[in-house]
Each structure stands twice: as structure tokens, then as C-alpha cells.
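Worked example 4.2. Below are the chains of a multi-component assembly; read each line carefully before continuing.
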Amino acid sequence: MLIFVQALVLFPLWFEIPTWVTASTIALMFFKFLSYRLQIKLPAWIVLIFVFSALAGVYFHFRTISGRDAGVSLICLMYGFKLLESKSYRDAALTLFISFFIMVMAFLFNKSIVMGLYLLLAMIAILSGLVALNSIHGFQGLKHLSKISGVALLQALPIMLVLFFLFPRLPGPLWAMPDSSQGGTGISDSMSPGDIGSLTTFDDPAFRVKFESTVPSANDMYWRGMVFSDYDGYTWREGVRSPTRTANIPNFTSRYQYKVQMEPNQSRWLFGLEQLATSPNGTFLFNDFTWRRPRKITTQFSYSAEAVTYDYQGVELSAVHRNVNLQLPATGNERTRQWAQQLFTQSSSTQDFIQRTLNVINQQEYSYTLTPEVLEEEVVDGFWFDTQEGFCEHYAGAFVFIMRAAGVPARVVTGYQGGEYNPYGDFYLIRQSDAHAWTEVWVDNQGWVRVDPTAAIDPSRVEADLRTRATRRDSWFSDKEFGFDLPQGFLQKLQLRWDAIKSFWDDSLMGYGQDQQNNWLSKLGIKSNQWRFLGYGLVFTLIVSGLVFGLWLLRKSSKRDPIEKYYELLKAKLMKQEVIISSHWGPKAILELLQQEHPELHKKYSTPIKFYIAIRYKKVSDKDNLQQRFKTQVKAL
Amino acid sequence: MHQALTPVLNQLNKVVLGKSHQVKLSVACLLAEGHLLIEDLPGMGKTTLGQAIAKVFGLEFQRIQFTSDILPADIIGANIFDKNDGQFKFHPGPVFSQLILGDEINRATPKAQSALLEAMEEQQVTVEGETFALPQPFFVIATQNPSHQIGTYPLPESQLDRFLFRIQLGYPDASFERVLLQGKSGRQNLNTLEPMLSLEDLIRIQQEVAKVTASEHLLNYVIHLIKATRQSPDFEHGLSPRGGLALIGAAKAWAFLDGRDYVLPEDIQQIFIPAVAHRLEFSQKTSGDSVKLVSELLEQVSVPS
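Applying the procedure described above to all two chains together yields the following C-alpha cells:
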């Protein structure tokens, strides 16, 4: 039973800790099973050697014994050893209590619903273990055990809810968990070939959006994240940018109001629907129309925002900005530079130039693939003339390069495009796989115009499995209609439903942090001094429930008749002498047990028990007298 | 008075080896004026036990072998035309006897079964409007084969309810089996048994058993138990009031056999399974052994302090 519980608890951790630790914990369990079956006992010094070698192993593997991974590995190993040496009731109980702790460690790695449900199961198993351990009859079948544990869990539910809602929350995690593997998934603060391509394979949610106004069409859902204007021939970076209080463009019309709920992504920037206006509370607007937060987003973070349309009539691009957005490396990619300048001289206007460039993408053999040939040098030349294959960032990068080479200010914008509507939760889900890069070109009197060169690719040259994605971006060549529709089948509905549940899980349960707690409390009308209130609230709740329970006990005991009370006392005294008495035993059974197994106790206890029998079951005349004598005898024991 | 019963039990144990608990239960059943149902495979000593009890208590004994073609008249008797008198005369059947051993009762058709079972309940027999009282004491020991055997008609619940106890004999221990194979007991000893009590003694004992005290406190316990059978999801129906009465009556007999004039919770527990298991019907979803379920139930109900 213990081994089973241990396996259940360790199972999710096996995938996170080093293989050798996993193997040794399994080996330890197997060994425990064997030694239990064969009744062998290991001498203490061997176990001690094992313990020290495990300690050394962990140290040499991680070069430390603290931190998340090393700590978890160490605890798992020690947990295995504990089971190995446990033989008494106390050891078993201790192992089970440690199991609760180990179980929760799985949450350090994975906080999904599936894990939550799994751990619920594990918890019932641990509780069943405890019940079986403390039950006089021993093992009584799994069904019976899990029933008792389930009832116990339900009984604990009110306490759990009170603690969940009222226990003071910290703004961040209690301890900083150095995350050893990759950081938060998301768009990075620079763009070199291949960055976004690796994102499009992640289906993790990036953020969720709820519109409070009308909803833009999917084609217009460009979620702006970062702007890159600095290019070194390989990597695009953020250029000169400065925080600004307002957009400095006097005329605009308000279009959409929405609320964003961001997943933690360990970065500082926020995403907003184009075009961005005043930044949400606690964040800054930059003059390249990006939002930033002073602190990294480590927990769920939500904000309200507004999308607007600016009127650029008469607005001029400042000289600084013009320079920044025309910057190119001094040399390199000569073929593209020449080609761009040539095309520009043929064009009648900037718009015409943009259109001509897009036509080239559309009509020549440019194809969209997530696995293009990797280019090391002359990246733009190689892409534009030779390979002619790539995905959004190749196109966006090359397009901006061409614009700049011809003297048209342009810049790369990264973020997300599109979003999947979830009718059950009435929100749009934007996944990591929706990551996208597009461009902005400065056109006089029109301002920064969004151009998505990727959308210009002829659909016949888009990899089949990417077509559905590409169709959503088809804004430039809107006369072309593709007949690809996602099948609105049962599976998809199921997935949407699941995501709505997941969103509730993530937002309301996992993401229940200080902010949510404050919100919730302020709804109740409590605003100030959260800590003090929570402290009082908790203490108050505990005292009240304690009082109610105490009163209930008191009432129960006052109702009891004296004989019952004294007989219970007698049984309790026997229990203290390590005599195990089941509740379904009558007095005669107790007498017989004492006579057979505890003759010395039998001498002391037989008289009062016989008195009890007489009072309860015999027909006697002087009951009061007997009762009095029974009481004094029990007291004397 | 119960001392008189000790040699009786000893004698019976000499005939039916290694089954002292079942023997004691059978005697308790007789003392509580109930009827006994023995369920077991053929050849386990059911009939021997019945015959031995009849002999030791000096009861008038009749054995009815139930077969699939037995008729009610074969059991209770019939009116037969008497040539000499020129009128119909009642010829009593084997049921007019103090101890009846109904062998393999579930091999008979329900019609024939009910002839005996009605006699058990009413203590009288009615033939063509004329009522005949049965002799006193009237004790039926019926045996039945496990119902999964071929050619059996399971007794309906309503009729099972008329038996105070249903017991199983089970295989004997190896040591007793050896004695049995050596031919030193069993039916050979049967013939040597002598009546050890008179009829008057038995009736007096039965009256005394009825006077054994079942205190208020004990009734609390019994009520808890009955309630538990009614609330348990394992059973279709709980214990009937008749079942509860049977429980008390049987416990009194058991206490008497133990030499007490008051019933203890332990007496209830000892007779609970034989007195209750056959009266409870499984609910649809439950499968398994009724004896096991009932004993689990017994462990779940605590004895009031």
C-alpha cells in the first residue's frame, strides 16, 4: 500500500528529475517490495552508505543541493530511503505525511488541470493509506477506503475554501524558483532568422482577449508587441525609443475596447490591438507605439486597453525617427539594395513601390515554409533571390530592408496575429503559434501603414498545413479567396470547451494572487489594510468554527448519561494500556479479551465491567446503588 | 435449568463431529421455538444432525424426503374414504409429528414447499375446511442444497423468513475427518443415543427462555442493527419486524445456553448471521457472499456504551 502511494506521488516527478534519480527511486521501491516479501532487513550502515552516496550523487549532478531541481531530486531519494527503513506505525504515518509534501512538489513543474486532477487522486490514495493505517480492522478493500477518504476530503472542503480565499497572498512567488530550462515562451526582444518559426509550433496560450466593444475582423487582429528598427545584417533589435505620455498625434478615433489576460512570459512588454493608444495602468507607452511594464510578467496579468485609428494628416516624421528607420548596415546584401533602388525609380509613389514589391512576392516563386534553408551570410540577398522560401520574419525583414534601401522609412513589428474565438468563455485565445512579424512603412500623410508581406505570398505556395493560418492573414490581396475553412466539428468544439475550463482554472484558481484577492475583497467592501483584515478574518473564522465545534461537543457530552460517560472513560483507560477495543465489541468481548491476553488488567477491570453489565443488561432492583459503585470503581482505576 | 442442556450438547457433539457452534445454534433454535434451515452440499451431515436432535430430546420424529413430484397431500395428509365407516376419514400425513426433517426442501415444487411452510407458521393444518392442530412442540429442520445445483426451486423470501436460523455445516476439520473415516462416529452413534430430556422439560425450558431479560439498552443496540440493514446500500430491503423479533428470541435462547438470564450484545452478534443473512435480499448492484456482507454490517454498528 505504501509503495503504491509512493509510486503514485512520485510519478509526475519522474519526468522532471534526472533519469538516474528516477531509476533509483523505482529501484528503492522494488527493493522495499522484495524485502517485505522475503522478510529481509538491511543493516543500518548499508542504508547510511546509500544515503550518503545519494547525497553525493545529487551534489555532483547539480553542483548544489539547493534549488528546485536538485532539491526535488534529493527529497525524492530521501523519501525512497524513508520507506526502506520504515517498519513501525510511526514510520509509516510519517511517510504518508511526507507524501502530501512530495505530492505538492509536482506543482512546481506543472500547474495544469490534468495535474490537479491527478493530484486529487493521489491525495485520496494517501488519505486511504492513512485510514488503513489507523483502522483497527486493517485493510478493508479499496472501495471502502477511498469512500472514507473522499468523505474526509469533502469535510475538509469548507476549511480549504476559507484558507484559499482569505490566506494572505504575496504579490509574487514566495521564493524565487530558479528555472533551469527554457524561460517563458514568447516573442523575444530581438529577431533573427528562425526565432518565430520555433514559436509557431507551441500551442500554449499567450493571452486571452475579451472585447467590450464590437469585435474587429480576424484579418485586423494584429496584436502589436515590439518594434524593431535596428538591423545589423543578421538580427533585428529595438532601436532608439523613449517613453512618452501620449501618442503626440492629436486626432484619432476610438475603435475597440478590450481586456487582455496575459499568461506569464517572463518579459516586460504587453500586447495591444493596433493601433495602440494610452497605455494601461502601471505601464508605459513608447513612441514607437509599444507598451512596456516596469516588472517582468511572472504571474497572470490583466489590463484593459483601447484600440484607435490615428489621423496622420499633416503629421511629419521627425528627423531622428526618419534616420532610425532608414538605418542599414554600411555594406552587405548589395544585390537587394540595387534591385530596390531600381524598382523605386520605376514606381510613381511610395504606395506604388510597396504594391510593386508585394506583387513580386505574390507572382514570383516565393513560398511559405517553416523549415527554410538556413542562411548564414548575406541573409537578405540569399532569401530574396536564391532560396525564396521562409516565413513571416524572413519576409518582414527583407521587406523592410528593401524599403529602407530605397529610402522609405520602415520597421519590423512583431506580435501575434489572429485569435481563436471561444464561444463558451466569450473570449479570443491567442496562442504562441499565432506569433507573427509584419512591417510598417511611413507614407506621408498616411503615417505608419501596416504592410504584411507574408500575406502576399500566393496561397498555392504555402505549405499545406500552414494554409489555414495564412488565409487569416490575407488582407493585402483580398480579392483572392481561399476555400479553406477549419472544420467546425465536434472535436473543435470540445477543444474550445476544454480551453474555457482551462481558462477558468488558470485565471481563477492558479492565478488567484494578491490582485484577485484584493478585487474580491473590495467587492465585499473591504479595501484598506489587506494583511490586517486577512489576519483578523482568519483568526475570527477559526475561533468561530472552534466555538461552534466546542459547543456541539459540549452539548453532546451533556446529553450523555453518566453510565455511558464512565463506560467510555473505562474503555479509554484500557486503550491507554494498549488494549485495542473495537466499537462493535460488547462488554463480554472485552472481558474475554482481558482474560486471555491481559490477565493483570483483567483483575482490575473485571469488577467494574461486570457492574456495567448488570446495570445495562440485567434486571436489577437497586440500580442507583450499582451506578454509584460503578462510578467510584471507574474513578479508582 | 440450563445445566440439563450441557450433556445434551455433549451427546450431539459426539454424533456431529467438530461442529459444536452449529450444534449449539440448532439447539438454540429449538429452544427459541423457531425452525431451522440447514443449507449445504449433500453428504455433509445435515440429516444426521436432525436425527440426533430428535433422539436426544426424545421427540417424535418424521422425515419427509422432498422430491420434484411430491404433493401437498403427501405432507399434510388427506381425507380417505373408509369402507367400514362409510365416510371420509382424515389420515394425518408426516407433518403431524414433533420434529420434522424436511430433506432437500428446495427440490420440491413451490406448491409442495408451501404446504410445509404454512404449517410451520400457523402451527396447524387445514384440510377441506377442517382444522387440525399440530403437536407441541413442533420443530422443523429443513435442509436445502445450494441453489446453484441442478433441479432446485429456490425458496421465496417470504418463506425463508419463516426459518429462525439458516446455518451451514461446512467441511469438518482434518482431525475430525480422520475420526469420521475411522468409523468411530456419525450414524453409528446415532442408534446409541438415548433421550436425555422429557417433553415437559423441553417445554419448561422453552418457557424459561422466553423469560430471559432483554434490557432497554440491548434493544437500542438491536434497533441500531435493524436500522443499519435498512440503510445499507448492499441490501434491497432491510430486516422486517418479524426478523427483529426473531433476533431477540434467538438471542434469548443463546444467552440461556450460556447460563444467563439476560441478553448481552455478544449474544446478538453470535446469532446475527444465522438469523439475518437469509432474510436479506441483495440489491442489484451487490454481488458476493451474504454472510460476508452481514458480518461487515455487524462490524460497522457500534455497541452503545
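Take a moment to check your reading of the output against the notes. The two ends of chain B are 31 Å apart (CA to CA). DSSP finds 13 helices and nine strands in chain B.
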